[in-house]
Amino acid sequence: MGAGDSRSVALSLLDAVRRQDVLLTAALRHELFRRDLDPRTSAPANRAALGTLRNRRLLDALLAPLAERGLPKKDERLMDLLRLALHEYLFMDSVPDYATLSSYVTLARKTKGPRVAGFVNALLRKAAALGRDVLLARAEALPLADRLSFPDHVADAAEQVFGPEAPDQLAWMNRPAPIGLTVHTGRTDRNALSAALRQVGLHPAAVDFAPAGLVLPPDEPPYQTLQFAQGLFWPQDPASQMVTLLARPKTSGRILDACAGNGTKSLGLALASPPGTEIVALDLSEPRIKLLTQRLEELEISNVTPVACDLLAAPYPPGSFDTVLVDAPCTGLGTVRRHPELKWRRTPADVASNSEIQARLIAAASDLVAPGGTLVYTVCTFTPQETTGVTAGFLAAHPDFRLVQASELPARGVGIPETVLLSAAPSLPSQQPGSLFLPPSRFDSDCFFAAVFVKARAALPAPHHDVALDV
After folding, report:
1. Strand, helix or coil at 242?
2. Dihedral in degrees, nearest 10, Cα atoms 40, 42, 44, 49
3. Four-residue CA torsion sign, 211, 169, 23, 48
4. Is the pTM higher than 0.85?
């Protein structure tokens, strides 16, 4: 398969993302299996689809003036073809311009017929006549949400949270994401794995604050290596690795990963926690729990017990766990570097409904924390409703918990250097003192929010403003 085939694959990927409501990564896996794709075809197709999703609103804004009778927005597949063509012309620069145009016109003829191909040809020739410099200058003159290609409500949330830094942080969210890895320290160590990956042509670098963390450049996926097949590492973004370390206890005890998902944080906790630590990985989805059970067996990790259950009806008495981690379901807007399709799926209604669910989950989780124990709340997003809105409401309703300041965390056994923790402790007015907020620019990672709470050791007397908690 050649370059033209990669464009056809990219169009199929975007079609699957839109019509099947799947992530691009899942769509790519399906195409790899269905077509038995060569990496020389799948890699540029993936880059083109990712870039088109990242820049969708910008591309539409640049295409609109070129279409005298308006863009064919009701024909979503044709819109994707036009976006792919303009994205490649502006940003990929992989082949001469005439070949780019000719290839997409040919693709339009095959999929839409000669009449549509004529429209595509005319529009793309207008783009080429203007040239890259003119089109990119037009892009710079667009409003923030158009220029950086985010829905209005997401751009508004970023401005509320980041203030003057919003354009820079949104621009970071459009950059290709490095590939984060966690080393299976039960089977190897970071230095040995780094050396092995270098031998196969990859370029790993250590994550400064995570002893088992590595990152690779965005275009160096390691999943076809022998080391991955041997279970020597698993994918995990540095931001997620920080959350794992925040929940790691100082002494052995019982940990509940209350919204375990695919279990990545449970795996990290299993290896990073003191000997004798017991971990329960709870998730509402039975298929996820079955996959996690299989994963634990393959990785030979025995101190994690997977449980399929709703946290709101968890079968555990109050105070059953020394540490409870609530990595709550959220809009996931902090992960759009890897999943740009989420930008176009999430709505203000999603933000509101998520914050309601998050409030119920953290309240239910708090009942399971033992006196003197730790509760960690985290989300991979930045909207105020899902971050400080949830934690402020929780503190108001639960006076037996207090928010742990970043400077206190090292003394509690968190192995993250204090300088790193303080750099993640925001000074932004929209954030509450004590919470941790990691913009993507800080460590070239996902964007995430975390708050660490500690529960009073004894029952509180009647509420009184002068009462100090025994923590």
Report:
1. helix
2. 170
3. negative
4. yes
Question: Please, where are the H alpha helices in 113-219?
Answer: 114-130, 132-140, 144-147, 152-162, 166-173, 190-199
Residue 321 belongs to a domain: yes
Kindly give, in sequence order, each residue whose CB lies less than 8 Å from that of residue 203, ignoring residues fewer than 6 positions away.
216, 217, 220
Task: Please report where in the chains the tokens 């409401």 appear, as a residue.
Answer: 393
Same domain, 84 and 126: yes
- In terms of pLDDT, which residue wins out, 461 or 209? 209
Q: What is the pLDDT of residue 1?
A: 44
Tell me whether residue 465 is in a domain. no
CB atoms within 10 A of CB 411: 10
Q: Tell me 89's DSSP state.
A: I
End-to-end CA distance of the chain: 64
In this structure, what CATH number is given to the domain that contains residue 119? Answer: 1.10.940.10
Taking the C-alpha atoms of residue 169 and residue 302, their distance in angstroms, rounded to an integer, is 40
Same-domain check for residues 130 and 252: no
Question: Tell me: the pLDDT tens digits for 170-192?
Answer: 999 999 999 999 999 999 999 99
- Least confident range of 13-17, 400-404, 421-425, 440-444: 421-425
Instruction: Please state the domain count of the chain.
Output: 3
User: CB–CB of 361/326 below 8 Å?
Assistant: yes
> What are the catalytic residues?
380
Residue 266 has pLDDT above 90, yes or no: yes
- Confidence band, pLDDT 50/70/90 cuts, at residue 460: low
Within a domain: 103: yes
Does residue 338 share a domain with residue 194? Answer: no
